[in-house]
Amino acid sequence: MPRMTFIERDGTRREVDAPLGLSVLEIAHKHGVDIEGACEGSLACSTCHVVVDGAWFGKLAKPTEDEEDMLDLAFDLQETSRLGCQLIMTDALDGLVVKLPAGTRNAGG
């Protein structure tokens, strides 16, 4: 099974099982990682904002216009920011590393 690593707000690294076909948000919730996901993955908020490790960012599918619109509302936006609900685990992403931002802003979730 693929694995991925969450870097929590305090810098703690948590490597977890990352079942194929689940989103980063779903994987986080499955393992008790502190990502809110207020809109439950319906692209109506930015509370599942994660910062993708630069080595992995180029391997991801490009964000949709809807995702980019929601990212514009995210707190602590970074160059490699994405929404966890839009990142779906595949074999190619085995080893993915994402960092939780300093905080979230729930705008419309």
TrEMBL record:
Keyword terms: 2Fe-2S, Iron, Iron-sulfur, Metal-binding
UniProt cross-references to Gene3D superfamilies, sorted A to Z: 3.10.20.30
Ranges where the 2Fe-2S ferredoxin-type domain occurs: 2-104
An MF annotation (GO) of this entry: electron transfer activity
Short name of one Pfam family: Fer2
PROSITE patterns listed in its UniProt record: 2FE2S_FER_2, ADX
Cofactor(s) needed: [2Fe-2S] cluster
BP-aspect Gene Ontology terms: P450-containing electron transport chain
Family: Belongs to the adrenodoxin/putidaredoxin family.
Name of this chain's protein: 2Fe-2S iron-sulfur cluster binding domain-containing protein
Source organism of this protein record: Dankookia rubra
